[in-house]
Specification:
48% of the residues lie in helices and 16% in strands. It contains 22 helices and twelve strands. The chain is globular, with a radius of gyration of 25 Å.
Length: 464
């Protein structure tokens, strides 16, 4: 069953309906569902599908020849084209009088095996596009290659694409569609553990408890997800050991580049190169206090939930896990899950607020949403605000998120109200998000203030 990607499918089909040459580029990290999207799009349509392999140019040419042969209904042994140019020209000619999709998946493998491929393709696009109904799709998992060698201005293909799709992991609301049997809280936990990457979600069994899923599908050294962080790094980067050390440093609290450098024993310049790559892959994210540009305050956080969970809990329990003591390791991990889920819940709340914003259900429409940390000049200490969204120069939304089993009380609301006063906005709206609801006093105070919205986790689940 295909799940999600409605906006991407709508756009792909809109391009398809034009009956003129189209060239969308689809890229994104491995396991994120690019191939599934293409397969869903081409279902029932005339299409030649070709997947590049990490092999020689000849092997890829033979595979392309077979794909064309299958499409034209050829029987017997497929004739091998003399060159990529002749094979591609044959495809362009097939699309002279009818709409034909030609998708190349794992394009970087083909382009690396035969270096002139992009130049050959560019020349044929320029030659045939005005009289062609070809719908050409290039898809790749190598983020750097696709952004530099396909979309970049130095690429022979630069300026030829008619659309581009960077496929990202699902958000919480979309991830929820994969499961029917989890409770709402369990679904949040699952999202916190594996995030929104489709291939990771498919490893989870909603007939099992969250505990059993963690034990069997994440902590078991023989499971797919246990090896996934290491395997993905090996596929995407050189010197995987350094990247591993950097992610470990971030996971254990070294979030500034100077701290990361000291922790891993490398220069800041070497770490900066690795951080850039990890940012591109979506494994980490860069954060600065809302509306502040100072690089001195920049921190790095793990953005992919599977990586965050794995590096937070697995290394410290690795000896136990490798010696089959999964239950013991889980008991240790479970004590830290509530704290771990704090940041996950914060992200879920941000996604929810964006969803309200898109449908004009916030008090005012905002353009940016972030978090803030800095000095409180009155109390002379460092403080944080989970959410700030600026609507205009006079109006902002402030939010606080609490993933606890206790109801949020008036003290939390008073703190958020006070911290919002550290900013010079005349119109302020406050949002409190709580896993477990609010005390009577907090509800009464919110009603009295009039600019406060109280949102329970159940409210979020009821509206996604």
């Amino acid at each position: 069953m295909f799940i999600g990607r409605e906006r991407e499918l709508k756009k792909l089909n809109s391009l398809y309906s034009t009956d003129i040459f189209q060239f969308p580029v689809i890229y994104g990290r491995r396991r994120v569902g690019k191939t599934a999207l293409i397969n869903e799009f081409i279902r029932g349509k005339d299409a030649i599908s070709f997947t590049g392999i990490e092999s020689t140019a000849l092997q890829n040419l033979e595979n392309l020849s077979h794909a064309i042969h299958r499409y034209v209904g050829g029987v017997g042994e497929a004739p091998i084209y003399s060159s990529f140019q002749s094979a591609l020209e044959a495809i362009f000619k097939l699309s002279e009088n009818k709409r034909l999709i030609f998708s190349i998946d794992e394009y970087p493998y083909v382009a690396k095996a035969y270096k002139p491929f992009s130049s050959v393709l560019q020349k044929l696009i320029d030659k045939y596009k005005d009289n062609s109904q070809l719908y050409l799709i290039l898809c790749g998992s190598s983020m750097s290659f696709m952004e530099e060698q396909v979309l970049g201005y130095k690429s022979p293909l630069y300026g030829r694409r008619t659309a581009q799709f960077k496929i990202l992991p699902f958000d919480f609301a979309e991830s929820k569609k994969y499961f029917k049997n989890f409770s709402d809280e369990d679904m949040a936990l699952i999202y916190g553990i594996v995030g929104g990457t489709p291939q990771y979600l498919l490893q989870i069994n909603d007939s099992l408890s969250v505990e059993d899923n963690i034990k069997e599908n994440v902590l078991d050294p023989n499971s797919y997800l246990f090896e996934e962080p290491a395997n993905l790094l090996k596929q995407e980067v050189q010197k995987a050991s350094l990247y591993n050390a950097i992610i470990s440093a971030i996971a254990t609290g070294s979030t500034k580049i100077s701290e990361i450098s000291v922790k891993v024993g490398e220069t800041t310049s070497a770490c900066a190169i690795c951080l850039k790559k990890l940012l591109m892959l979506g494994i980490i994210k860069k954060d600065t206090p809302f509306k502040e540009d100072s690089t001195k305050k920049t921190i790095y956080l793990i953005d992919d939930n599977l990586f965050r969970f794995w590096y937070r809990f697995v290394p410290q329990n690795l000896s136990l896990l490798q010696n089959g003591m999964i239950d013991v390791a889980y008991n240790s991990i479970s004590t830290g899950m509530s704290t771990y889920m704090g940041m996950v819940f914060e992200e879920i709340c941000k996604q929810y607020l964006w969803r309200l914003n898109r449908t004009s259900k916030t008090p005012a429409t905002f353009m940016e949403l972030g978090r803030w940390w800095g000095n409180d000049p009155k109390e002379k200490k460092q403080v944080e605000i989970d959410m700030i969204a600026e609507c205009d120069k006079d109006t902002a939304i402030f939010g606080e998120c609490k993933w606890t089993n206790e109801k949020v009380d008036t003290k939390v609301l008073d703190t958020l109200l006070y911290r919002s006063s550290l900013f010079a906005y005349n119109n302020v709206y406050l949002y409190l998000f709580s896993k477990s609801g609010f005390t009577k006093g907090c509800v009464e105070k919110a009603d009295e203030l009039g600019n406060v919205t109280l949102v329970t986790f159940q409210d979020i689940m009821n509206n996604i």
